[in-house]
Specification:
The complex is a heterotetramer of chains A (162), B (177), C (596) and D (369). Chain B is an alpha/beta fold and 177 residues long. Helices cover 41% and strands 12% of the residues of chain B. Chain B is built from 7 helices and 5 strands. In chain B, helix 4 links the parallel strand 4 and strand 5. In chain B, helix 1 packs antiparallel against helix 5. The N and C termini of chain B lie far apart (34 Å). Chain C has 20 helices and 23 strands. Classes of the chains: A alpha/beta (162), B alpha/beta (177), C alpha/beta (596), D alpha+beta (369). Chains in contact: A-B, A-C, A-D, B-C, B-D, C-D. At the C-D interface, helix 1 and helix 2 of C face helix 2, helix 5, strand 5 and helix 6 of D.
Chain lengths: 162, 177, 596, 369
């Protein structure tokens, strides 16, 4: 049963973290290089962080990066740990972790649906939630919903109003 | 009885019988479907009006569009609607079927139901209460009796415009042979 | 596996229900009464609603559109728009009811509306909902679900005891955090803009403060008001009287926010921010007579258009009534000079200690300049001419205030009576109180006015602050006679009761009741009952049309002489912001006049 | 008997056995499923995109529409993530009221899912009772919040209204009626029904190792013996002020999960009684100023709470602006509804697929978002 600080010391010792932050009680976020992420997750998984809640993705369009966040939780430490890494937005490619957690296959497929990030090693990248989507992935910041909706659906004409 | 299409005494009797036993297709297309169990079961009990759930489109008379309709579901709703036998009726639940509702600016939901399939009645609500749904059914029964519930005839007549609208959103849609 | 009790007969419990009353609600005969707090269809009290549009802003489904109604007229404080609700979009969340500034929009408990025509689901609620039936009120907002920020940030002020000691500025001004919190209270409904004589972009500059972008605020302010430091302190702020938040709470402190925005941008940045480093010069010359608010405003806007501007000022410094009529505790001179210096830096030439009509005649000016803007203001006092006013211990507030501002020593006795109920009376009374405090250690000033306290023209805060500083009031008294003792000093002032101030069609003609006589000891009387102008420099050699005491001008401030424009108090009072507006109008008028 | 032909079956999206609009395409031989693949996306409305275009307060009516079984859970997680990033401490009474609402929502969801499970095996009387009992709870919700299913009641800063004492009393009466009249009937009709027991026992088995590797939480995980409940692991609202037990089982089959749901209902009744009896007085909401201009500093938060089927989390990123920069919804049944179908469904009998879906609480709008 590690406390937050003990966990931070452990991580600082064993992984070379880009940054570590205690967001709030039972909530820590660390940042790793792209190459070290999978080994970091493997390390964490062997240190009681066995629960992968989900994989989130945030589109930082200004600094041209996608940020992938792996939310882990340890039932012993009772700490929620977000492991974060940033990948180049143009390349939008990252490595799969489906061999660590099988369920990541679908999380990655979901992220591919909405952000267009390909995960090498996860070959099943066809559409999961969307169907026949031929625009840029919708959750990207440069996808303008309003223009798309104006083009595809027309507004009801209330006797000539918008 | 100024029924626009063709009307004879025999049609009146059919309408009278039709009104008595309606089968509602059990297809919850949107979030409004959570108000259907209370309507179907003992608390509000729509079977008092002779309306019961039907499992397959071929045995159903009423298609309920309960709330929003994502494009994926729209494709299946069109298959379902086209598999249902005439006379068939469509009821739009809630704001989402009228003018987009809460998802008016969503890229994946349709904004006006009547562009894609003919709608006989809309019920206001987000989502409509069981009492409002039952009164909607009663209004539908009146429309059937007076022969005004002729959405399905309109679909056959203006099939091309419906097809065009559908294809604008969905691309190619498999049609019944 | 733990042994789970089970028996083939246990499901038979369901037969029990054969003997129970069915729990079905037999709609439509027996409709279950909805809860008191149910969110059904909307109703809207169309008189109470002011068309501010906040409900359409917070509606996350764009279900509410503001629609113009013919039978509702636009007037101060309300628009003729009312919300039209589209039940093809509404999700009955009730955010609109929670934020409604006047509380006119409400829910009923009615929820059934079925129709085949989709377009019939859009409806303008009035006292009946979409079903046109009387229905009980449903969900109601309370202080927990309040979505507005109803109360102001407390403005720090000097307490009465310490402020009467000196002419230090009373109001401290907002800190950054306070200003942003106060700015966040504005719902940007734009109702206040219609009440501001200069129709300033109030929501825009408040939004600038909120977004921590004071440069944007400065730009928005200077579009209509070149004297923000002044107006941030002494404006009569009618915008705050009709702010939509004031219906259920306290108005946004618009004036103090303007002051915060301008206080926190230093003068050197102005040109860069407002883009006035380089102005395209035009070789047309305009003369401006009087460096008061109207003159300065015209000078500023004309200079932006590139004209060569010369301002002739009788006094030794610019500012007019702002400098010589308003004491320093309300408007410090360094702030006034900041506004003036910006205008000066634009390239406006000032000529001081020149009185038109005495040192130079108006016709000489006309020869040298292509257009003239007269904004000389009302700098002469008015007397009640009651018996005894010719005594030399009777003064007029205007001249005393000018001497105080120039720092000159003024006659100051122990007991003074001030006649008058307006802001000028308040200024002189509180200035005398300060001087008395410094000289005699205690205050003894009595203010008598025709008007009773509730209709006194002075600001309510001014009256309260004066009372806190030891000034006494005797409202509703008419001055009858100043009793002078043999040695020429004043002993008492005799007053009667003033029954009414205005007659039926609101003209000023007071009626008195001579039975109720009251005398008050005093050894000095100051009259602050109004100001008069001295337009002799025009009237001596040109005859222009007048409208009562004021010069008649068209909407571009042009007098009957095409080349002569007029503004400020000599055309339209009573306050600085109107002066600024007339100056701005005149600038456009002169621009058009010079162009063709 | 030779190997029978492998045929494809389209299960859903329109199928009474499926909770919500969701399809499973599987191949089967004989009557056992051989391979399966989820077909989600029918209820996708792009919530996360919509939320990025609305101010903070405007999302409160939107979030409760994500999962129609548990609107309050979504409102709570959204409000909690706003308060976590903005470091806003809500009044004590508001925390109590939030816990009461969440426990009522848990009871309502459990009863509905027990009804659904019975419907999946054809015990329709129990389904009727389940929906009926749930409706009485909705009446209470309507009284407190003004809405039947979508309450829009838990908001950043607290809750929208205070609960009057008369309503608190009604809640207690409802709980008594539930505990003394309804649940015994359920016990008899469902839990002591040999046919039903036989049907549920060791169907749709989920063992501990699979559950942990999939990230499954809630009753499905507790049915395998682990006592993990977010209300105990990371207490929120007023859960640290009440004592309650977290029921667990061992076999991890549909029957154990159903029993757990029943026990949890009784625990929730106990919790609500404690909450109602010592609810503190005081304000129920913090006025965060003008709603059109709610603003919290830049920051991020992954906040999770215990819904009726497990951990329900939001990952919210704020850039200090008036609108959330990114909201990622992690529904409870995301792992099972997608990957679980592919790995755990093969081996089930065809008629057990609806039981599998209902018993593991698959709620499609959660992963369609």
């Amino acid at each position: 049963m590690r406390s937050e600080n003990e966990l931070i010391e452990l991580l600082n010792r064993d992984l070379n973290l880009l940054s570590v932050k205690k967001l709030r009680k039972q909530n820590i976020s660390i940042r790793l290089e792209n190459e070290e992420l999978v080994s970091g997750l493997n390390y964490l998984k062997s240190h009681s962080y066995i629960h992968l809640a989900t994989i989130s993705c945030v589109d930082w369009i200004e600094d041209n990066q996608f940020e992938l966040i792996y939310h882990l939780f340890s039932y012993e430490d009772k700490i929620s740990l977000s492991v974060k890494t940033k990948i180049n937005r143009q390349k939008s490619r990252f490595v799969t972790i489906k061999n660590l957690w099988g369920v990541a296959k679908y999380y990655e497929r979901d992220i591919h649906d909405f952000f267009g990030i390909k995960f090498t090693g996860n070959d099943n990248m066809d559409e999961l939630i969307l169907e026949n989507w031929n625009e840029i992935p919708p959750m990207r910041k440069d996808f303008k919903t309003r223009q798309y909706v104006d083009k595809k659906y027309d507004w009801r004409q209330y006797h000539g109003q918008e | 009885m100024n029924n626009k299409y063709e009307s004879n005494k025999w049609q009146e009797v059919i309408n009278w019988v039709q009104k008595r036993s309606l089968f509602m297709l059990h297809y919850c297309t949107g979030c409004g479907a959570i108000e259907l169990p209370p309507t179907m079961t003992s608390r509000y009990d729509m079977s008092r009006f002779g309306i019961g759930p039907a499992a397959t489109p071929r045995q159903a008379d009423i298609l309920l569009i309960t709330g929003y309709l994502s494009t994926k579901t729209l494709r299946r709703v069109i298959y379902t609607y086209e598999q249902m036998q005439d006379p068939k009726f469509v009821m739009g639940f809630g704001s989402c079927t009228i003018n987009g509702g809460m998802y008016w600016d969503s890229y994946n939901t349709i904004k006006q139901l009547d562009k894609y399939i003919p709608v006989d009645l809309y019920i206001a609500g987000c989502m409509p209460r069981p009492e409002a749904i039952l009164e909607g059914f009663l209004k539908l029964k009146e429309k059937i009796e007076t022969g005004n519930a002729d959405g399905y005839k309109k679909y056959n007549k203006e099939y091309e415009t419906y097809k065009k609208n559908q294809e604008k959103v969905l691309g190619e849609v498999k049609r019944r042979q | 596996m733990s042994k789970d009790k089970s028996s083939i007969f246990s499901p038979a419990v369901s037969f029990k229900n054969l003997f129970k009353k069915p729990e079905t609600i037999k709609v439509p005969e027996e409709n279950k009464k909805t809860a008191k707090r149910y969110r059904g269809f909307h109703i809207n009290d169309l008189d109470k609603c002011i068309g501010c549009g906040t409900c359409s802003k917070i509606c996350d489904n764009k279900a509410i559109k503001m629609v113009e109604l013919e039978n509702v007229k636009t007037e101060l404080g309300q628009r003729n728009e009312r919300p039209k609700i589209d039940y093809g979009r509404c999700c009955w969340c009730g955010l609109c009811v929670d934020i409604c500034t006047t509380g006119s929009l409400q829910f009923t408990q009615d929820y059934t509306y079925i129709n085949h025509d989709a377009e019939s689901f859009s409806y303008i609620p009035d006292n009946k909902n979409i079903n046109k039936i009387e229905s009980a009120i449903g969900y109601e907002r309370d202080q927990d679900s309040e979505l507005l920020d109803l109360y102001r940030i407390e403005m720090q002020e000097l307490d009465a005891e310490s402020r009467v000691q000196s002419f230090m500025e009373i109001v401290k001004g907002f800190s950054k955090k306070q200003a942003e919190k106060e700015a966040s209270r504005c719902v940007e409904c734009d109702i206040c803009t219609e009440a501001c004589p200069a129709s300033m972009n109030i929501p825009e500059y408040i939004r600038g403060i909120y977004d921590e972008d004071l440069e944007e605020s400065l730009k928005q302010i200077y579009e209509d008001n070149p004297l923000p430091e002044v107006c941030g302190r002494i404006c009569t702020h009618n915008c705050e009287s009709i702010c939509s938040i004031s219906h259920r709470g306290e108005a946004v402190s618009i004036r103090w926010l303007k002051r915060y925005a301008v206080d926190n941008v230093d003068l050197a940045e102005y040109n860069k921010i407002l883009g006035t480093e380089k102005i395209h010069q035009v070789d047309k010359k305009v003369a401006i007579i009087g460096a008061g608010p109207a003159g300065l405003s015209a000078a500023h806007y004309l200079k932006l258009m590139g004209y060569q501007i010369t301002v002739f000022e009788a006094e030794s410094k610019a500012g007019g009534m702002m400098r010589y009529g308003i004491p320093e505790y309300r408007l410090p001179y360094d702030k006034l000079d900041k506004d003036i210096n910006y205008i000066k830096n634009l390239g406006v030439e000032f000529k001081f200690n020149i009185r038109i009509g005495k040192d130079i005649s108006l016709s000489d000016i006309k020869k040298e300049y292509d257009a003239v803007f007269a904004a000389t203001g009302l700098h002469n006092g008015r007397s009640t001419r009651i018996p005894g006013t010719e005594n030399n211990n009777v003064y007029q507030a205007i001249y005393l205030l000018k001497q105080i501002t120039k720092g000159e020593e003024i006659p100051l006795t122990k007991k003074i009576v001030v006649i008058g109920g307006g802001n000028v009376a308040m200024d002189i009374a509180r200035s005398l109180a300060r001087l008395q405090k410094k000289k005699y250690g205690q205050v003894n000033v009595l203010v008598t006015s025709l008007e009773t306290e509730d209709i006194m023209p002075a600001d309510q805060e001014e009256i309260e602050e004066a009372r806190e500083e030891g000034v006494d009031f005797e409202p509703g008294r008419g001055p009858k006679e100043i009793i002078v003792s043999e040695d020429g000093s004043i002993s008492q002032i005799c007053t009667n009761c003033c029954v009414s101030v205005f007659d039926d069609d609101m003209n000023f003609n007071p009626t008195f009741d001579d039975q109720d006589i009251q005398n008050y000891e005093c050894d000095m009387v100051v009259e602050a009952i109004g100001q008069a102008g001295d337009n002799s420099y025009i009237d001596d050699n040109y005859d222009i049309k007048y409208e009562g005491p004021r010069i008649k001008v068209n909407d571009k401030q042009q007098t009957s002489l095409p080349w002569l424009f007029a503004g400020g108090d000599i055309v339209r009072g009573p306050d600085v912001i109107n002066g600024i507006k007339t100056g701005h109008n005149a600038a456009q008028g002169i621009d058009e006049f010079l162009k063709n | 008997m030779g190997k029978s032909k492998r045929t494809e079956m389209f299960f859903g999206p329109n199928h009474p056995g499926v909770p919500g609009n969701y399809g499973i395409n599987y191949f089967y031989e004989g009557d056992t499923v051989v391979s399966a693949e989820p077909n989600p996306g029918h209820l996708h409305r792009g919530f996360e995109k919509l939320m990025e275009e609305r101010e903070w307060i405007k999302n409160t009516p939107l979030v409760c529409r994500i999962c129609v079984m548990e609107p309050d859970i979504n409102e709570m997680v959204y409000a909690m993530s706003f308060e976590a990033i903005g470091e806003i401490k809500i009044p004590k009474r508001a925390a109590y009221i939030r816990s009461i609402i969440l426990e009522l929502a848990r009871i309502q969801a459990h009863i509905f899912s027990i009804g659904g499970n019975c419907g999946a095996i054809g015990l329709y009387t129990a389904m009727q009772w389940g929906v009926l009992t749930r409706d009485y709870i909705l009446d209470i919700f309507e009284e407190i919040t003004g809405g039947r299913v979508y309450h829009i009641y838990i908001r950043p800063g607290g809750v929208r209204h205070d609960i009057e004492d008369v309503t608190l009393q009604k809640i207690l009466d409802l709980l008594n009626d539930l505990e003394n009249n309804r649940m015994p009937e359920f016990q008899k009709l469902i839990f002591e029904n040999p046919i039903a027991q036989k049907r549920w026992k060791n169907t749709a088995v989920l063992n501990q190792e699979d559950a942990l590797s999939l990230g499954v939480t809630g009753p499905a995980l507790r049915a395998t013996g682990l006592e993990h409940d977010v209300r105990k692991l990371m207490p929120y609202a007023a859960y640290d002020q009440v004592d309650f037990k977290v029921p667990t089982g061992e076999d991890g089959d549909a029957w154990t999960r159903l029993k757990l749901k029943k026990d949890e209902i009784f625990q929730s009744i106990k919790i609500i009684r404690q909450l109602v009896n010592n609810i503190p007085a005081g304000p129920v909401s913090l006025n965060l100023g003008n709603a059109l201009k709610y603003k919290i500093p830049a920051g991020e938060a992954y906040v999770k709470i215990e819904s009726s089927r497990g951990e329900y989390g939001y990952y919210v990123v704020s850039d200090g602006g008036l609108k959330p920069y990114r909201v990622h919804v992690r529904g409870t049944s995301t792992p099972l509804g997608l990957y679980g179908v592919e790995t755990l469904l093969p081996g089930c009998r065809i008629e057990d697929v609806p039981v599998w879906a209902h018993s593991l609480g698959i709620c499609p709008p959660e992963f369609d978002r």
